């Protein structure tokens, strides 16, 4: 019997084929994982920004005594929402507005960006639905995310009553 001195050409080709197939599977899994992670990042950025904006607007309107109609623009895109709040006996104005796809809050001292840098506010419409002694607003907002081929957008809605208005009347 003859002693084996190595692998044959056929064995080497089989090993290379198996390693190539394994490499292809690993690369495809990594690419799909990267795509899924981008989608998760987009959803997280959109949801965090949308919920923060809606929550902050709701907080301002609920604690407000009235809508600042001189500052606000209703029914247009993008709208501007001004709310007059009573803080420690002083009437202060809080304004929500969109500039270059970013949502800002202005509270008589400083402008604060509310949305993440990775998202854009594609639509922001505020409707004044005040009736009689009830002061209320309806918010309709679309936030989008675009990174290369990944594009996503979500709608956010809210309707808020100015509870502070009840104390004034």
Describe the model:
The protein is α+β, with helices and mostly antiparallel strands and 169 residues long. The chain has one domain. It has helices at 9-63, 164-168; strands at 64-67, 81-87, 90-99, 102-106, 111-113, 119-128, 136-147, 150-161. β4 and β5 form a beta hairpin.
Chart the SSEs and their pairings.
Blueprint lengths: L8 H55 E4 L13 E7 L2 E10 L2 E5 L4 E3 L5 E10 L7 E12 L2 E12 L2 H5 L1
Antiparallel strand pairs: 1-2, 2-3, 3-4, 4-5, 6-7, 7-8
Please give the alpha-carbon distance between the first and last residues.
108 Å
Rg, nearest Å: 28 Å
Strand order, largest beta sheet: 1-2-3-4-5
Helix proportion of residues, in percent?
A: 25-40%
Mean pLDDT: 85
Strand content: 35-45%
Number of separate structural domains: 1
Biggest beta-sheet profile: 5 strands, antiparallel
Helix count from the secondary structure assignment: 2
Structural class, from helix and strand content? alpha+beta
Uncertain spans: none
Helix and strand element order: HEEEEEEEEH
Overall 3D form? rod-shaped
Number of strands: 8
Short description:
The protein is built from two helices and eight strands. It is an alpha+beta fold and about 170 residues long.
């Amino acid at each position: 019997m003859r002693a084996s001195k190595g692998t044959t050409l056929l064995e080497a080709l089989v090993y290379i084929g198996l390693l190539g197939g394994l490499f292809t599977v690993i690369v495809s899994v990594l690419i799909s994982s990267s795509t899924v992670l981008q989608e998760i990042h987009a959803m997280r950025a959109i949801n965090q920004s949308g919920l923060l904006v809606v929550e902050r607007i709701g907080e301002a309107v609920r604690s407000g005594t009235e809508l600042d109609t001189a500052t606000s623009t209703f029914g247009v895109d993008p709208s501007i929402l001004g709310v007059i709040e009573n803080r420690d006996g002083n009437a202060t104005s809080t304004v929500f507005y969109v500039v270059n796809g970013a949502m800002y809050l202005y509270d008589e001292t400083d402008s604060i960006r509310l949305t993440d840098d990775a998202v854009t506010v594609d639509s922001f419409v505020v409707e004044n639905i005040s009736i009689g002694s009830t002061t209320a607003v309806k918010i309709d907002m679309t936030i989008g995310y675009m990174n290369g081929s990944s594009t996503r957008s979500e709608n956010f809605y809210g309707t808020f009553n100015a509870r502070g208005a009840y104390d004034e009347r």
